[in-house]
Structures are given as structure tokens and as C-alpha cells.
Specification:
Belongs to the esterase D family. This protein is α/β, with parallel strands linked by helices. The protein is built from ten helices and nine strands. The protein is globular.
Length: about 280
């Protein structure tokens, strides 16, 4: 199996290039696609810092690249964007496509413990395999200077991955993250199926629990949340995360944005702020 990435698409935008790649992932046991946005090159020897973007339920690696408009600010700030897919695909596990909030397109950025879902190891894919692949294959990128962001399920992924790997990422931000999944229907469904019934295992992938455990956070966590988001009060629970950050004395900027919903229109409206937030941290 070919594990090194092959380019399958390229489009110029804001002086740089969106490039899509395909490779076989030993971690997930299937072929995966991901996007990189390369800003305009400054010099042959220049290395760009990277911002990983984790997308939400039902998304692929394409949604953010096509809909967010993030390339404009990334081009100006000189940051490469890396957008992986949201789950393994093509494994034909029974039940993997039965519901939109579990299985395909719903990897939840964890390492599954249940045997049936053993290939669902998006945590290891994002934290270990992808950075190694970037370092090995893209000399113009500096994977040692990395930040992480995401939306909804991907916001959950960004927060949990950051908190458990404070040495690997300079900063984190999120749009409408699933901030306390052990207490919401999406999280309870996913965690029961992927991780089993032991609630202690669930807490390892809940940002509200983790911030009390890994609270040596220096960079301010940025979260934007629309107050017209239909998932705000039953699924996302940013207030629970805010309370935990306050208890742990972790710097958090939680902005409730009036009138905005859960869509990419919301993300596109504030993505420049998030790119600037990460640019500041990556420049240090």
C-alpha cells in the first residue's frame, strides 16, 4: 500500500494553492484524503507554520476549504492550512452509514476501544500520523510550529487534542464546539458505541473534564458561538466548559455572537479573527 501522499487536485487562490492529497493510512486501515492550503511562497528555504482544521459531523476534508474563505487570511499571515477528513471510509463495517451522527463522517477524533470500531482512530491519525507525514513529505511546512482549530465535532476534537498535547500545539480555537460531550446526546451516542460503557474512558475525550486535568495553558483559548445556533443548549454546552476554565484558571475568550447559527456562514464571518489568533501564537 502506498502510504506517501499523491496529489489528486490543485487550485490557485489568493496567490497560494489548495492541494488535495490521497494516501493509505496504516492508523485507520484505509485510504484517506486531506487538503493543504499552501500560502504564496516567500523564498525557497522558507517554512510555513501550520494550522490544522478539524471539521464537524457529516463533513469531509472539502467543507472548510470550499466554504470558510480562510485562505485569504492564511495567505496574508503566511500560515498553511491542513484539513483532514472526519473518519475512516470504505471499510464497510456493518452499521457505519446507518446514522449521520455516528460512523462515517463522525469519527469524533478519538481512538475507539470497541473491537467493531477498531479502525476509528482519528485521534492517533491527527496527532501522530498526519504530522509525521507532513514532516516527511512537505519540506516547505514546519510541523513543529502547529496550532489547531475546528467546528462542532471538530471543535471538540481541537480542544481535547490541544489540552492533551500542550507541547505539540501553540494555540487552539473553536467554532461552536461540542464542549461537554459526556453530557449531550451526540457525545453519549458516540462514546457508548466507540468507547463502551465505562464513563472514565469518556472523560478522556471531554474538554470540560480535561481542562481541569491539563490546565497549564498559557495561550488564551478562543471560542466563537452563535446565539441562534439550534444545538447550543442541548448539544454544545459551552457554559460548562467556561465554568471549568474558570475553576482551573485557564484563559478563555468565549464570544457569543448574536444572530449567528451553526453554519459555515458563521465560520466565514469570524475565521479571520481565528487565523490572526493563531498567527500571533505561531510567531512566538
Amino acid at each position: 500500500m502506498e502510504t506517501s501522499p499523491s496529489e489528486i487536485g490543485s487550485s490557485k487562490i489568493y496567490g497560494g494553492y489548495n492541494k488535495r492529497y490521497k494516501h493509505f493510512s496504516p492508523t485507520l486501515g484505509c485510504s484517506m484524503t486531506f487538503y493543504i492550503y499552501f500560502p504564496p511562497s516567500l523564498s525557497p528555504s522558507h517554512k510555513f507554520p501550520v494550522l490544522y482544521w478539524l471539521s464537524g459531523l457529516t463533513c469531509t476534508d472539502e467543507n472548510f476549504i470550499v466554504k470558510s474563505g480562510a485562505q485569504r487570511a492564511a495567505s496574508t499571515q503566511g500560515i498553511a492550512l491542513i484539513a483532514p477528513d472526519t473518519s475512516p471510509r470504505g471499510l464497510n463495517v456493518e452499521g457505519e452509514a446507518d446514522s449521520w451522527d455516528f460512523g462515517i463522517g463522525a469519527g469524533f477524533y478519538l481512538n475507539a476501544k470497541e473491537e467493531k470500531w477498531k479502525n476509528w482512530r482519528m485521534y492517533d491519525y491527527v496527532v501522530k500520523e498526519l504530522p509525521e507525514l507532513i514532516t516527511k513529505n512537505f519540506p516547505e511546512l514546519d510541523a513543529s510550529r502547529a496550532s489547531i482549530s475546528g467546528h462542532s465535532m471538530g471543535g471538540h476534537g481541537a480542544l481535547t487534542i490541544y489540552l492533551k498535547n500542550l507541547d505539540k500545539y501553540k494555540s487552539v480555537s473553536a467554532f461552536a464546539p461540542i464542549a461537554n460531550p459526556i453530557n449531550c446526546p451526540w457525545g453519549q451516542k458516540a462514546f457508548t458505541n466507540y468507547l463502551g460503557s465505562n464513563k472514565v474512558d469518556w472523560e478522556e475525550y471531554d474538554a470540560t473534564c480535561l481542562v481541569l486535568k491539563f490546565h497549564d495553558v498559557s495561550a488564551t483559548i478562543l471560542i466563537d458561538q452563535g446565539d441562534n445556533d439550534k444545538f447550543l443548549h442541548d448539544q454544545l454546552l459551552p457554559n460548562k466548559f467556561e465554568e471549568a476554565c474558570r475553576s482551573a484558571n485557564v484563559p478563555l475568550l468565549l464570544r457569543l455572537q448574536p444572530g449567528y447559527d451553526h453554519s459555515y456562514f458563521f465560520i466565514a464571518s469570524f475565521i479571520d479573527d481565528h487565523i490572526s489568533h493563531h498567527a500571533q501564537a505561531l510567531a512566538l
